[in-house]
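Hey, sorry to bother you again with one of my protein questions. A protein chain has come my way and I'm curious about its shape. It would help a lot if you went through both lines with me. I owe you a coffee for this, so here goes:
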Amino acid sequence: MKLRTKADIFQVIYKDKNMMKTLQAVESLQLPDSWICAGWLRSKIWDIQHGYHIQTKSPDIDVIYFDNDQMSEATEKELEKKLHDIMPELPWSVKNQARMHLTNQVPAYLHSIDAISKFPETATAIAIRITKEGALEIAAPHGITDVCEGIIRPTPFFQQSTKRIKIYEKRVREKNWLSRWPNLMYA
């Protein structure tokens, strides 16, 4: 199956009981502006594009949300524990994007999608959630073409700075994605 559209991605996720259960666990916390983002979804798409029937194990499940009222790291740890109580087999990582600009040493993010837009690679700048109405929703500020076509390139935010481009280059080397997904291409 070749994934080309958000509807194609939704179809794959709806059929994956573990992914749906993971999304439902996050939705049950009812966090403001919350998403599962980055590698968990990107890797699923790349696995499908490569014809893999066993999903690549994620080193973490990146859950993000945006809450200016409660910006302590301790709150994030409490949320990770709640998710761990629901699905203890998963490596949860919860981050409030209202405070992550401090860690990343960049201007404050406006909301979760603004933070996603500033991830290192366009193919990783993707997120998914279950809406209050029970439908899936994807946030992809740079579109889904790169992730669906297996193109690795820096986001415009990372292209704007020599320091950030070096971080991107180091990250790409360390991730060594081509060893798992050989059909990927660098742009």
